[in-house]
Amino acid sequence: MADTQRPSFLLAGGAVEERGDLKEIIQKKSGKVAVASPWEWDPAASIASARHEFGEHGGVNMSIEASATFSFMDSETMRRMFTGELGPDRDFFIYSRSFNPTVLNLGRLMAALEGTEAAYCTASGMAAISSVLMQLCGSGGHIVASSALYGGSHALLSHFLPKACNITTTMVDIGDVSAVKNAIVEGKTKVLYFEAISNPTLTVANIPELSRVANEKGVKVVVDNTFAPMVLSPARLGADVVVHSITKFISGAADIIAGAVCGPAWFVNSMMDMHHGTLMLLGPTMNPKLAFELCERMQHLGLRMKEHGARALAFAGRLKKLGLRVIYPGLEDHPQHQLLKSMANKEYGYGGLLCVDMETEEKANRFMNILQNDAHFGFIAVSLGYYETLMSCSGSTTSSELSSEEQRLAGISPGLVRISVGYVGTLEQRWSQLEKAVCHLKEHGLLLKN
């Protein structure tokens, strides 16, 4: 898309105005970031304020625009679109690799969810992450990133980008703000990248403070919020860009692979530039049929996240009382419990993931086998955000891209079991199954002392 074109991603119906000016939310006072209470804003209300698309014949659900290419009333209109005079802001479309009406509507909902001006939806979460980082960092650029990241993101930063793009990364403990500050190389570092709640260690990032440090150095803050949609709103806490693997909680059914980039309109538009835009030129296009399905699921995301969080909190507390080593940011003994509580949106809990540290991979596998095959509590599978409980031993699966030393630095124990808590059945029904597995562990002397 030509530089002259500025397609509108802005939300209709006043949702952007309700989001408020970030200057009102983040105020620098005495070198510190003062964050207005996130309880004053509700992502579900923001989504409800976004423009509702009706179907072609008046249906309450929008129609699916499945066309790869679009026709024009005359050749002059086509010419004006290619020069950037006309665009999707006025319902003019050329080709679905650039903009598609159905996908664009999902983008509006994602922008409403995160409280950003714009959003663009991609074919996967990794497509969103890689496109953003390559847009912000040219050859020779530098990134400072958390040492505790999803394995795919870690491999992208540590191996692919240096080799393919001459972009290097310094990994740091994101909880050590001084280390983050010292790792930033003025004039070279372009991005500070981290996960709002880390995969799989469930470490909570101090988004306002990290954003302050980065902004003082002219560095853009990119936050992966896959683990905490609805729970946290990183852009409202100071982040410049928010990325998602929509595949997880937002989809909720483990049947769709998708991602999203949420941020300022100028940045999303730059990613769609015909000559320099990573989204335009790399083509991580979302299928409009999937975008339609995801639009329908966005409306009940808030309800689902509340139940995921409520179950996770209940199970984490009970498992801890039974003597297991439990990691969950909703527990008061979690190192960042108060931090998360201070940043979280009201009533959405502390997230739907918890971890149980079984110390060794052998014990972790035994635990998961008992949970799935004896107690019938969930499935041994990667991914998360499904309505059923999913569990995996992170060190040997989704974090296997990290070396043993990198896993140690990230705080990943060989026996760390990541559990994405589902919500089917009743809480007590599921708890009885979980408790049965713990009793089995005790009988065989496999239960670690807390």
UniProtKB/TrEMBL annotation:
<dbReference type="InterPro" id="IPR015424">
    <property type="entry name" value="PyrdxlP-dep_Trfase"/>
</dbReference>
<dbReference type="GO" id="GO:0005737">
    <property type="term" value="C:cytoplasm"/>
</dbReference>
<dbReference type="GO" id="GO:0016846">
    <property type="term" value="F:carbon-sulfur lyase activity"/>
</dbReference>
<dbReference type="GO" id="GO:0019346">
    <property type="term" value="P:transsulfuration"/>
</dbReference>
<comment type="similarity">
    <text>Belongs to the trans-sulfuration enzymes family.</text>
</comment>
<dbReference type="InterPro" id="IPR015421">
    <property type="entry name" value="PyrdxlP-dep_Trfase_major"/>
</dbReference>
<feature type="modified residue" description="N6-(pyridoxal phosphate)lysine">
    <location>
        <position position="248"/>
    </location>
</feature>
<dbReference type="InterPro" id="IPR000277">
    <property type="entry name" value="Cys/Met-Metab_PyrdxlP-dep_enz"/>
</dbReference>
<keyword id="KW-0663">Pyridoxal phosphate</keyword>
<protein>
    <recommendedName>
        <fullName>Methionine gamma-lyase</fullName>
    </recommendedName>
</protein>
<dbReference type="GO" id="GO:0030170">
    <property type="term" value="F:pyridoxal phosphate binding"/>
</dbReference>
<dbReference type="InterPro" id="IPR015422">
    <property type="entry name" value="PyrdxlP-dep_Trfase_small"/>
</dbReference>
<dbReference type="Pfam" id="PF01053">
    <property type="entry name" value="Cys_Met_Meta_PP"/>
</dbReference>
